[in-house]
Amino acid sequence: AQRTSGFADALRGLLPKLGLGSAMDEQAVRRAWGGLVGPFIASQSAPDRIRGGVLYVRVHQSSVRFELERVWKADIESKLAAEFGADKIRSVKFFS
Is residue 81 over pLDDT 80? Predict the structure, then answer.
């Protein structure tokens, strides 16, 4: 078991150097998105990419984007930080 965990730790350290860490983080965020934001927001938006600790989220309608920015952004950022760590996702930017 110790050998396996050593390999997993080495792999986790290597992935970011290969540029694959953020791709794996993006997939994890996409899988968790609906559970974090609820069905309505999930139906109106989709995580696009993570760059420099910023999660970019595509929103289908500008009126929903405005509401997310104004009302839900802090709550979503808090949930993302709790789920993935504040070092991985520091903020969210919505775009359409």
Answer: yes
**Residue 58 bridge partners (DSSP):** 46, 95
Question: What is the helix (H) or strand (E) element at residue 47, kind and residue range?
Answer: strand 45-51
Q: Select from 8, 21, 92 the least CA-distant residue to 55.
A: 92
Query: What's the length of the chain?
Result: 96
Rounded Cα gap, residues 17 and 68, in angstroms? 33
User: In angstroms, rounded to a whole number, what is the distance separating the alpha carbons of residues 89 and 96?
Assistant: 20
Helix, strand, coil percentages (3-state) for the chain, rounded to 5, are 65, 20, 15
* pLDDT tens digit sequence for 26-45: 899 999 999 999 999 999 99
Distance CA 62, CA 44 (A): 10
Percent of the chain with pLDDT over 90: 61
Structure tokens that stand for 76 in this block: 């979503």
